[in-house]
Amino acid sequence: MLETDTHRPPAVRARGVTKSFGDVMALNGVDLDVASGQVHGLVGLNGAGKTTLLGLLLGLAVADSGRLEILGTPVGRTLAVPDGVAGFVDGPGLYPSLTARQNLSALASLRGYDAGRAAGVDDALEQVGLTDVADDRIRGFSLGMRQRLGLAAALLTKPRLLVLDEPANGLDPAGKHHVHRVITGLAADGTAVVLSSHRMDDLAALCSEVTILATGRVVFSGPVSKLAAESGELDYRLLTSDPVAAHRLASETPGLHVMPGRDPGQRPDADVVVRGPVTALDELVVRLVRAGVALRELGPVVAPLEAAFLALTGTGTMPAQTDQEDPR
User: Fold this and answer.
1) Which InterPro entries does the record match to this protein (predicted)?
2) Per-residue pLDDT tens digits for 206-253
3) Sequence-separated (6 or more) residues with CB below 8 Å from residue 7
4) Which residue from 26, 96, 222, 275 lies 20 to 30 Å from 119 (Cα-Cα)?
5) Chain Cα centroid distance, residue 154
6) What is the pTM of this model?
7) Domains along the chain with CATH numbers
């Protein structure tokens, strides 16, 4: 990604932001910094405050207290944000009776874009991989296709800050490729992107920094690499040419604990699951090689980012991904 310009103001700067809905404190003293050219992930359990924070960035809500600056401009107590901000929360707003092309053309007209900007409709559709269905009515679109069309609508504005709520919802592999390519391309050109996701693989692939919310508070904010380091000891799954020997060698490796499971002697393709630090795992790999045991697969049972998330939020499972989320 493009190195951020230290002379430019941050795309987002929040200090002590709070927001309540009746007796529910959705955001409680939230600090957030997002630099230009950065893809910043926002993650948390349902109801943690992600949607509320995204809504503030898009001018769909106002904070009760605290300071919020977007693209160098202070945001007051009115439903407005500076030009250059685009995105969607809880899915894009679209006209189901219109085609994909007509939806984007209508948006261009409503926003008073000149002919040159309106001509970008076809380019936006191509970027998100919807050229072949540009003249189909979107009432028949899948969730993933609607998400991509919402992204295309945001591209029309040439945003300097793009805010996306679960952009990978409903995407097939091809759609995911298109969306990832657009997001990384925008960041490379200096656009700041803030996206929420329950998918740790998307965060790892796209984001340089991530913020984790729990019950309206920030429990972590910083580089993804630092978050991964917070995961500590992980469970790793090994597939080898000799599971019995692998089980024995793992048991003999200092710092490793072999997790209970089925007897490795029952099946030739049985896996072995071990828990321990990376240094101990490295030692196990060396021992396997010396013993002539082929290592066919090695990977964490739970991804490092997910493990860190679970530890920081004090929960045992990731939230189920849903099409709609609690607005708080």
Assistant:
1) AAA+_ATPase, ABC_transporter-like_ATP-bd, ABC_transporter-like_CS, P-loop_NTPase
2) 999 999 999 999 999 988 877 766 656 678 889 999 999 999 999 999
3) none
4) 96
5) 17
6) 0.75
7) 12-229 (3.40.50.300), 234-308 (3.30.70)
